[in-house]
């Protein structure tokens, strides 16, 4: 056997793999919205997926993958139009299951808030927001509902304090928006 055949491959002979790049500026942007760097403690165990109804019913929704993308700073991908984050039902199962207290649902809610700031929320979210802004409820209350409630011995739905709703939904003054 020749010396060349016995020679171990050098680093030059090995195919070069692209390294993982972390966008720390994007991570800091998310951490600012979250109020801390809790996302950094996710070690990708997958406990968040185990009891997730959205992962069960929506192909492509996986809170562990969302957390990995957030860990790597792929925030722009997560807050883009038609992002998978909108499939999250905010059930808080991942919050309860996470052994590191990372609170994946809060990360997803923060991402939804960033997406909304960028105007990248689905039309359905905008219409629900507008319904809440106008009526204080996420769905219209028709007269038939109160009649059904009365038939079951329940009182009519109470009136909503719209001043309180307006206060809650008032945009931050520092964003340059007005109410």
Describe the structure.
The chain has helices at residues 3-6, 24-34, 47-50, 53-57, 63-71, 75-78, 93-97, 104-117, 123-135, 143-151, 162-169. By secondary structure, it is mainly α. It has a domain at 24-143: Alpha-helical ferredoxin (Fumarate Reductase Iron-sulfur Protein, Chain B, domain 2), CATH 1.10.1060.10. Residues 173-179 have low confidence and may be disordered. It is 48% helix and 0% strand. The longest helix has 14 residues, at 104-117. The protein is built from 11 helices and no strands.
List keywords for this structure.
single chain; about 180 residues; Fumarate Reductase Iron-sulfur Protein, Chain B, domain 2; about 50% helix
Roughly how many Å is the radius of gyration? 24 Å
Helix content: 40-55%
Q: Write out the CATH superfamily name of the domain at 24-143.
A: Alpha-helical ferredoxin
Instruction: Provide the structure class.
Output: mainly alpha
Oligomeric status: single chain
Strand content: under 5%
Give the number of DSSP strands: 0
What is the CATH topology descriptor of the domain at 24-143?
A: Fumarate Reductase Iron-sulfur Protein, Chain B, domain 2
Q: What are the segments in which pLDDT stays under 50 over at least 5 consecutive residues?
A: 173-179
Biggest sheet overview: none
In DSSP terms (H or I, runs of 4 or more residues), the helix count works out at: 11
Please state the overall shape, judged from the principal axes of the Cα atoms.
elongated
Which CATH top level class of the domain at 24-143 fits? Mainly Alpha
Could you state the order of secondary-structure elements as H and E? HHHHHHHHHHH
CATH architecture of the domain at 24-143: Orthogonal Bundle
Distance between the termini: 82 Å
- Mean pLDDT across residues: 86
């Amino acid at each position: 056997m020749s010396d060349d055949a016995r020679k171990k491959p050098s680093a030059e002979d090995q195919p070069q793999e692209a390294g993982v790049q972390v966008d720390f500026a994007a991570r800091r942007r998310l951490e600012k919205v979250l109020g801390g760097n809790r996302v950094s403690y996710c070690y990708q165990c997958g406990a968040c997926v185990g009891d997730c109804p959205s992962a069960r019913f929506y192909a492509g929704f996986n809170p562990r993958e969302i957390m990995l993308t957030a860990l790597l700073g792929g925030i722009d991908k997560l807050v883009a139009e038609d992002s998978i984050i909108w499939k999250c039902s905010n059930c808080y199962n991942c919050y309860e299951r996470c052994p590191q207290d990372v609170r994946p649902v809060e990360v997803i809610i923060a991402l939804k808030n960033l997406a909304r700031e960028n105007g990248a929320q689905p039309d359905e979210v905008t219409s629900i927001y507008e319904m809440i802004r106008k009526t204080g409820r996420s769905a219209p209350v028709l007269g038939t509902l109160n009649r059904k409630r009365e038939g079951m011995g329940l009182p009519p739905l109470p009136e909503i304090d719209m001043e309180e709703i307006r206060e809650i939904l008032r945009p931050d003054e520092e964003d340059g928006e007005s109410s």
